[in-house]
Specification:
This protein is mainly alpha-helical. It has helices at about 10-40, 55-80, 85-105, 110-125, 130-135.
Length: about 140
């Protein structure tokens, strides 16, 4: 028997918030990835001098395309209340946050907004994520 309270409360909204934000972030990541892959020499991607750049533009694009697709799939699984999706979502959101840290010198405001949302999603899934499963019963 589990000692976790599986009663649904108003806090289940945090879980829904996390799932929706993850799917939206996944769509944005996938779009950024596609733009970087299809237009690697575009003026849209300009590296800041002294910034932390781990990949060339194409590698960065593949990273974000794959991460974006995974975020969309995991966000959809969160809505079903799958416990494994909570764990995978927290890992993927943490990876997304590290990716945004790498972009901080290039896109500071966007990176700070996404980092803030990533922190809220991790909070929602760690504190109130168990209620997603209870809400599906």
């Amino acid at each position: 028997m589990s000692t976790v309270d599986t009663n649904t409360t108003g806090w289940v909204g945090w879980g829904w918030f996390a799932a929706i934000v993850i799917m939206i972030a996944g769509v944005f990541d996938a779009i950024y990835g596609l733009v970087a892959i299809l237009m690697p020499n575009s003026a849209y991607f300009v590296a800041a001098e002294g910034g932390l750049i781990l990949f060339d533009t194409s590698g960065w694009g593949w990273w974000h395309l794959i991460l974006g697709v995974l975020l969309i799939l995991v966000g959809a699984a969160l809505i079903t209340g799958a416990t494994w999706a909570r764990v995978v979502a927290i890992i993927l959101v943490a990876l997304n946050a590290f990716g945004q840290l790498a972009l901080l010198p290039v896109q500071p405001w966007w990176s700070l907004v996404v980092l803030t949302l990533d922190i809220l999603v991790i909070y929602a899934l760690t504190v109130h994520g168990h209620e997603l499963k209870a809400a599906r019963r």
